[in-house]
Amino acid sequence: MSGNYDHIKRANDDYAASFDRGGKPIPPAKQAAVLTCMDARIMPAEALGFELGDVHVIRNAGGRASDDAIRSLVISHKLLGTKEFYVIHHTDCGMGMFDQATMETLLESSLNTATPGADGWSDPGGEDGSQEGRFIKWLTFSDAAEAVTEGVTRIRNHKLVPGRIPVYGFIYDVDTGKLAEIEAASAAGRAR
Fold first, then answer.
1. 5, 35, 161, 182 from 152: Cα distances, Å
2. Are 88 and 36 in contact (CB under 8 A)?
3. How far apart are CA 117 and CA 149, in angstroms?
4. For 187, which DSSP code?
5. Is the pTM of this model over 0.85?
6. Which of 61, 142, 151, 190 is the most core-located residue (most Cβ within 10 A)?
7. Angle ∠(169,40,80) on CA atoms, nearest 5
8. Closest Cα partner for 54 from 74, 80, 78, 36?
9. pLDDT, tens only, 133-179
10. Residue 158, CB half-sphere, CA atoms under 13 Å: how many?
11. Are 167 and 155 spatial neighbours (Cβ–Cβ below 8 Å)?
């Protein structure tokens, strides 16, 4: 077992021993959903002032408005009553450190963890590489504000997202904890 496994088991035992927040309804109390990155430096509910049960948080690499993220947003609205969506990217995002071709090449080399360096990514090699990475859209980006606007626009224009739902766009600064609204994104996401 890993050190994290033991930590998780002990921490959950402690958490469950004093857990007193059960019995909350399934729909989020604040009727909002947040799409953000999986980056471990972001605690979305905490950073936004929400408590357990207040909002849905949908996370993926880069906080991208992928088909699966939109699926979750649609379920959040249609079945659980959310009335507003927030797309939040962040500074220093790893998704801006590579592109589609780089990921494909790294995966073809091996499935071992690659490392960044001054000359780009370095792969340790191995015998388990695969070309399957060519069939996945990695949804990389080079400009976080553009990516936020793109995500908000994609959600706003999706045929399964009602025009009455506002979609807002922000960038979270991982060094200060501050949110900066991306005006172009929020303007694109205004309810119709």
1. 37, 10, 11, 10
2. yes
3. 29
4. H
5. yes
6. 151
7. 55
8. 80
9. 999 999 999 999 999 999 999 999 999 999 999 999 999 999 999 99
10. 22
11. yes
